[in-house]
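Bug #77: duplicate submission created two jobs. Keeping one. Sequence:
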Amino acid sequence: MADLVLYHAVPSRSATVRWMLEEVGEPYDVHLLKLSEGDQQKPDYLAINPQGKVPALKHKGVVFTEVAAICTYLADAFPNAKLAVPANDPRRGVYLQWLFFGPSCMEPALQDRAFPRKEPARAAAIGYRDLDTLCDIVAKAVSKGPYIMGEQFTAADVVIGSGLRWGTMFKLIPERPEFRPYVERLGQRPASQRADAKDKELAGK
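Kept job's structure:
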């Protein structure tokens, strides 16, 4: 049994961590949950994640959740994959900013677009701006390329890239000339292709 175990469902947000694990290149096992059968709400899994959400990751017996936290941890735990900016590098703050920009800003704004409020929230009352403003910020970052941190591909690209790919697939993020080549570049990575192929295989079972 591998030291790493991914609690996973297809399709779901845990696809981002599956991709990250493929980038890391360490052996891992998958504990598959079928959301359609309510596996995520059964007592055994609620003991893993009381929210009843995926993903969760177990590493050497320790379990933790949240996509960005898992990706940050994996990048630091397996430095040979070169998916992190080291702690003593001044760029570390920018790298962490992008890792948490995805779940803290982009994802809530995407959910607002998908499930609009009756009245828009005041900008000063929530911790993120509207989706169009956020897309402008991301577009400026990825246009410098080839990756968010420049020449180095990092866990931040896994998190931000997954959000862009999902958002454009479901037409929640508008087509932008800056996004298309970036998303295509990420899709050409062998680890991304392996993760997609493995999930397609699972979806067919």
